Amino acid sequence: MQRSEMEKEFLPLDVMINILKRVPVKSLIRFKCVSKEWLKILERSPFFTKQQLEHSAANNALLLLQRIHRQPRPEPFSTCIIGPHHDLIHESHLSHIVSPTAKILASCNGLLCLRHNTALSILNPATRQIRQVPIANLLAFNYVGFGFSPLADDYKIVRISMCVFAPDDQVVVLDNVRVDRVEVYSLASGSWREIDAAKLQPLCIVSSSVAITGTIFWLATMTSASNTDSEFVVSFDVGRDLFTLVNGPPIPHSPSHPYNNNVLAVCNDKLAMFRHYIVGAFESCSFDLWVLEDFHGHYDNNTCDVSAESWVKMYSVGPFSRIVYPLSLWGDEIVCREELSGQENDLRTVETVLALFNPLSKQLKKLPSHKDEFFYVPFTYSESLVPVSNLLHH
């Protein structure tokens, strides 16, 4: 009996896929040379790519950390990956394909959106594939989001360009900065197009983005021209290229909460927000975690969808006797940066520790990847075979 006939009799296709989707991507890449049938499954099957990604996201959600040296000197682009048991499972130096100045902006389905100097690129660190994105120069006041739409079966990059509306001799403050234009890049078509940004033009984007299947979110505030200090969440429907505004959770205005800083996150595939409070001269801090239930974006008007949104407070954490910043959520734990010493608001001089806070046990546990000469930027991550080219027709 020939080898190909034996393979077909011995291992049905559905069984083979069920086994292979559980194998690490590094091994899957090596398995491409086993047979033509395996090559076809691993490299040319959108169905298997989707199956592998879904299994990886559900069963092996990882924490990817970009390491940035505290001193302003050239260092190779470096990441490390923390496994489900808080163990350091992989360190990667991709200096041969990624610029040393690259910064990770977003993570989605095993792909990273990178910014390096004035350029953007998409990287799959598991397969080591990278795709350069054609783009005009990025300005200081540009905000970028990256997400996937199952509806369109497409990955998109959203670039929100900010503009300073003030005399040349006036000091630039947030009140003078607001949205000027929005461009969307489709990885399927390989092209940029400008979309209507009228709804955003009274706003100033003030945060990096987070993405939940089909939607990208940013934090924004109204500029002085609107005569209000309201805060909103901007949501972008990746499939329909449409924006809507969402009211944030209630803001407590009291002497016990004199300062607050907000951070967007993802909690069980729902939008979440940390409200972070610092007391006195950075003497202690606490934070709340809010989760948005039953989100329904209304795209037919320029007003906020108020009635359909419901923010629920999940946790109130602290107070801490030191400054602890919540950064993101990873599973049931909160990724935090604990500041030990240094100059306020200068990450390159502050001695920091990256840690996980468990809301149930109230324990703050230092991550094993920590090295004093670096500070770390965390991203949730799942290994995948998603290609960076021909994302629609592969």
From TrEMBL:
Residues 5-51 form the F-box domain. Pfam families: F-box, FBA_3. Coiled coil: none annotated. It comes from the Eukaryota. This is F-box domain-containing protein. The gene is Vigan.05G021900.
